[in-house]
Amino acid sequence: MRKTILLITIFFSILSNLASAGEPIDKKEIYAFFEDLVLKFNKQDIKGYEAIFMIPHARHIAGQVTFVSDKSTSLVNFDQLRKLGWEKSLLRKTHIFFASEAKAFVNVHWTRMGTNGKVLQDFTAFYELTKLGDSLKITYISAADTPLTIGIDES
C-alpha cells in the first residue's frame, strides 16, 4: 500500500511539474546563438565572445576541468591560435539533446581552419546553455578532440 501511495505521489508530482513548465527554448534561438558565437569568434571579438559565457561557468577542455569565476579571466587566446596557423572556425553540425524553458544541452561539431585551407582541428563540444532574461549563456562546456558522429544532426 505504501508503495502504491508513493508511486501515485511521484506520478502526480511529475505531472504537476510538466504542467507548470513553460515553453522550451526555441530551437531557432539556440541555432542563432551558435551562429553568433562563431561570428564573434571569427571576428576575434573578445568582449562579445566572452559575454556569451556566464560567470561563473565550468570548462572541461584538453583533459582539464576549470571553474571560471573571475570576469578578468581570458577565455580565448587568439594570438596563440594565429601562431598555430588558425584563420577561422566553422560550425559544422548542431544537435540539441534537450531544451526546457531555462536550460538546453547541445552538441556542436566544430572545425578550425588554417590560413592554407587545411583543417587544423576537428572536434565536438558539449554545451549547457542557461536562459537568463532574454539571452542564453554558456554555463558548461566540454570539448572532445575528435568529432562525435552519434547524436549529431545537420543544422
Description:
It is a single chain. With 155 residues, the protein is of the alpha+beta class. The protein has a single domain (22-144), classed as Roll (Nuclear Transport Factor 2, Chain: A), CATH 3.10.450. 30% of the residues lie in helices and 41% in strands. It is built from four helices and six strands. Strands 2-1-6-5-4-3 form a six-stranded mixed beta sheet. 14% of the residues are buried.
What's the gist of this structure?
The protein has 155 residues and is α+β, with helices and mostly antiparallel strands. The chain has helices spanning 2-20, 27-42, 46-50, 78-83; strands spanning 53-61, 64-68, 86-99, 103-114, 119-132, 135-144.
Shape: globular
**How many β-strand runs?**
6
Terminal Cα separation, in Å? 50 Å
Q: How would you sum up the major sheet?
A: 6 strands, mixed
Supply Rg.
Answer: 19 Å
Element-level helix/strand string: HHHEEHEEEE
**Biggest sheet: strand arrangement:** 2-1-6-5-4-3
Tally of helical segments: 4
As an assembly, this protein is single chain
When the domains are counted, the total is 1
**For the residues shown, what is the average pLDDT?**
83
